[in-house]
Amino acid sequence: MKLRKRIFCIAICFVAVALAQSYDSGTVVKWEKQAYAITALHPAGNHIVYSIKVGAVTYKVARRTAKVEMAMGQQIQCRVEKNSMIVRDEKGKEMKYEVVGTE
Questions:
Q1: What is the full DSSP assignment across 10-69?
Q2: Sign of torsion, CA 62 68 74 79?
Q3: Residues of the chain with pLDDT > 90: what percent?
Q4: Is pLDDT of 20 > 60?
Q5: Residues 77, 70: contact at Cβ < 8 Å?
Q6: For residue 94, what are the β-bridge partners?
Q7: pTM of the complete model
């Protein structure tokens, strides 16, 4: 009986954590190829830098890829954590982008 209560409490904790990660709606304003170095270990190269408007703030975000992953005008679900933006796609998969600036 005690084991069932523990499992139930653990399950409730996981649900609470999952619900605590709320997402904001954003819009991809534009994307462009830019020479950009994510870290000192990864030298500058051409990366796609996205401008994403969330509320009154426009974030510039990038990943280490030259592949275009979002289209201009696309509505996205995202959240900002420290220097990162987490974008959730239609299937629920999360992709992490580095915030490289704001406007």
A1: HHHHHHHHHHHS--EEEEEEEEEEEEE-SBTTB--EEEEEEEEEETTEEEEEE-S--S--
A2: negative
A3: 54
A4: no
A5: no
A6: 88
A7: 0.73
